[in-house]
Write a structure and sequence with these properties.
The complex is a heterodimer of chains A (about 240) and B (about 160).
Chain A (H helix, E strand, L loop, with lengths): L1 H27 L9 E10 L3 E9 L5 E7 L2 E2 L3 E2 L4 E3 L2 E6 L4 E6 L6 E5 L4 E9 L12 H4 L5 E3 L7 H5 L4 E9 L5 E9 L5 H10 L1 E2 L9 E13 L4 H4 L1
Antiparallel strand pairs in A: 1-2, 1-10, 2-3, 3-4, 3-5, 6-7, 7-8, 8-9, 9-10, 11-14, 12-13, 12-15
Chain B lengths: L1 H26 L7 H12 L3 H14 L3 H18 L2 H14 L4 H13 L3 H14 L4 H14 E10 L1
The chains are: A alpha+beta (about 240), B mainly alpha (about 160).
């Protein structure tokens, strides 16, 4: 009687586990919401030697990728990168010349993510463009395709008083688009060490402006990193005693 | 702002005095006399009548039979002087309280506030750490810690554009 009851309970538990497991597995797999196919206007940041780079990235349906850089006011020749792959809503490809492995989270609203080499880590962020990748050096007007993104007003976030009281420091990177009037639109966080810094950063971005440009259709990608620091004041009378 | 902090701290004193009193009452139902002064003194301090509170507590202190009562009384006098804005006297009473009872977290907490008033943030922080190690749950400690951090930490935001 006891043994048969135990078997029944065990069977019921097993059935529950079997039913729950696929559901849990489905939950863990993110579903891509962004189609990466197309040409993208990107900013790549975080390399200590190269600084910020602006480039055009072409992601093709045949799984190839290529990139063109904006150098000295001209768009360079398109250079092939490795084939792209998508797994768990993450797009990956590699630039074998620079050794960078690129990762993009396709659950975001635009293409962007992180890049890494064995020793370095950075980020990239793109806005879509209708520019068509050509195999040779492009004679299109680079200044209209990629006008320089020049800050006109950079607002500093307020350090939240609660964060000071709790002695919280932090770091954040927000990427966004800039419209033709210089306003920051669609900001997203690619890194945020503590939620307490989210609102001050969004408020500061909303107050910030870039110089405008004439093409109203174009959105330019940009990113801004923030480090929230607390340093001991030197005026503590304890230390003077 | 300063007034708000003072009122906030005074509320902390209420907890301090009342808690000490309850504890003492529980231990001293058959003890005569002195605790009435301590209770009345704690109440005066609670309502912001610091001079009267100090007077009554001092009377009670002279008749306080137990170490815990004396330590609580000294700590309450310390709190009253700190609330009056006399940190030097406050520190003196809190130190006496700690000397006779090392486990008195309220005395460390009150002395921390007195050090804070004097701008001795490092010492204030040290006392607060001791108080927190004895009673990590005390809200009063978190409040004083926040006040010390407000005064002793310089915030800055470093930004870098990637474009």
């Amino acid at each position: 009687m006891t043994a048969s009851r135990f078997v029944l309970v065990a069977a019921a538990c097993l059935a529950c586990v079997c039913a729950a497991a696929p559901a849990a597995a489905r939950k863990s797999h993110a579903v891509p919401s962004l189609d990466p196919i197309g040409t993208w206007n990107c900013v790549v940041y975080g390399h200590p030697a190269f600084g910020d780079e602006r480039l055009l990235l072409s992601v093709l349906a045949d799984r190839s990728t290529k990139v063109a850089r904006l150098l000295d006011g001209e768009i360079s020749a398109w250079v092939p990168l490795t084939h792209w792959e998508i797994e768990d809503a993450t797009l990956t490809f590699t630039d074998s010349r620079s050794g960078r492995d690129y990762h993009a989270d396709l659950t975001r609203t635009t293409l962007g993510g992180s890049w890494r080499t064995p020793t370095l880590l950075g980020g990239w962020w793109c806005s879509p463009t209708d520019f068509v990748a050509a195999p040779t050096v492009e004679q299109a007007k680079p200044e209209t395709l990629m006008p320089p993104l020049l800050p006109w007003l950079t607002a500093t976030p307020v350090y939240p008083i609660k964060a000071i009281r709790d002695a919280k420091q932090g770091r954040a990177v927000s990427c966004f688009f800039v419209d033709s009037e210089g306003y920051v639109v669609q900001p997203e966080f690619v890194e945020l060490s503590d939620e307490i810094f989210r609102t001050p950063i969004l408020n500061a971005l909303a107050r910030s402006r870039y110089e405008a440009w004439p093409d109203e259709r174009m959105l330019r990608p940009g990113c801004r990193s923030f480090i929230f620091r607390l340093d001991p004041l030197t005026g503590d009378a304890s230390t003077a005693q | 702002m300063a007034r708000t902090q003072l009122i906030g701290l005074a509320l902390g004193f209420v907890a301090s005095a009342a808690a000490a009193q309850v504890q003492d009452r529980a231990q001293s139902r058959m003890v005569l006399g002195g605790n009435e002064f301590l209770a009345a003194g704690a109440e005066e301090i609670r309502v912001g009548q610091y001079d009267e509170g100090i007077r009554l507590t001092t009377l009670g202190l002279m008749q306080a039979p137990t170490t815990a009562e004396r330590a609580a009384a000294l700590s309450n006098i310390c709190a009253a002087y700190a609330a009056k804005g006399d940190p030097d006297k406050a520190i003196d009473y809190c130190t006496q309280s700690i000397t006779i009872w090392e486990g008195n977290w309220r005395a460390y907490s009150n002395r921390s506030y007195a050090f804070y008033l004097k701008g001795l943030y490092k010492k204030a922080h040290e006392d607060l750490e001791i108080a927190a190690s004895i009673n990590p749950e005390a809200r009063q400690i978190a409040k004083i810690r926040g006040m010390i951090n407000e005064r002793s930490l310089q915030p800055s935001v470093i930004m870098e554009d990637h474009r």
